[in-house]
Specification:
The chain is mostly helical. The protein is about 45% helix and about 5% strand.
């Protein structure tokens, strides 16, 4: 296959793929202040993971989705802030388009902590509307699950970032800098108890008080050090994707769809079943 990135493909190449496959991975991200890394760091990390996942699962990747809810980094002049509701609606429109095109197995991923507030409501509403179970995978959670033992220090995290730019052919976009490393606590540290009352930025509205809050960046003084981080990060990403077992995930999605189809026959008042039968509720089977 010439490329797995859908925007880079010819229409005829997409049609050829869809003859016997239906899997697409959709990385979503942000453009936000990120210490000594480019503003689209978390978008690029998600895209790199998506590309490696697609290679394993024989899938395509829909790139070019960097503008979603950023969250606390809205205090940065470089941050593009889109509301949660706008993100849900936009991503939902994309999901419905992809389904019409023939992509029934859709996997949305993000390395951005608050992305669950956009992606999770969308996949649930999408199922109620269409009866098709699509998936959101939170890469920050996968770091704690599949990534156990691979993330040895904060430098491993920075290596993942640099490695992602390397995978996407953009390593030169990572600047050589020693100016963004610090050990100062976040200005919002006194409010951590409040932030911990719900998952990942979902408890209360707030913004960081200083660009240093997001985030301290390891020193990258030379091209040699950048290359070293890139190779380390690429290896970590590849090992994480191996541990995720994307093929198994796709098969479980197919199995779940079959299971849900049976449920819709038994429980026609379920939203997805109701929509499928145009509102004609019949007596449940069994």
């Amino acid at each position: 296959m010439r490329t797995r990135i859908l925007p880079k493909m010819l229409n005829c190449e997409v049609e050829e793929y869809l003859k016997d496959r239906d899997i697409i991975i959709v990385p979503t991200g942000t453009v936000e202040m990120h210490g000594g890394m480019p503003l689209d760091s978390e978008t690029v990390i998600s895209e790199a993971f998506a590309l490696k996942m697609a290679e394993q699962a024989d899938a395509l990747v829909l790139t070019g989705l960097p503008y979603f809810y950023a969250g606390a980094t809205a205090s940065g002049r470089g941050t593009v802030q889109v509301s949660v509701r706008q993100g849900i609606d936009y991503l939902g429109a994309i999901a419905r388009s992809l389904l019409r095109q023939g992509f029934k197995r859709q996997i949305y991923i993000s390395f951005h902590g608050p992305a669950h507030m956009t992606c999770s409501p969308m996949v649930r509403d999408f199922f109620d509307e269409t009866g098709v179970p699509i998936l959101y995978m939170d890469l920050t959670m996968e770091m704690g699950n599949a990534g156990k033992g691979l993330i040895r220090s904060i430098d491993s995290f920075h290596a993942i970032t640099v490695g992602a730019y390397h995978i996407m052919g953009r390593l030169s976009d990572v600047p050589l800098t020693t100016e963004f490393f610090h050990t100062e606590p976040q200005t919002v540290e006194p409010f951590q108890r409040l932030f911990g009352l719900a998952y990942q930025s979902g408890s209360i509205g707030y913004c960081f008080g200083d660009p240093k809050d997001h985030m301290s960046t390891t020193a990258i003084p030379t091209e040699e050090r950048r290359q070293e981080l890139a190779l380390e990060g690429k290896e970590i990403i590849e090992r994480l994707v191996d541990a995720m077992d994307v093929k198994k995930t796709v098969q479980e999605m197919r199995d779940l769809e079959h299971f849900q189809s049976q449920l819709m026959e038994r429980y026609p008042w379920m939203p997805a079943a109701y929509e499928r039968h145009k509102g004609k509720i019949t007596r449940p089977l069994g």
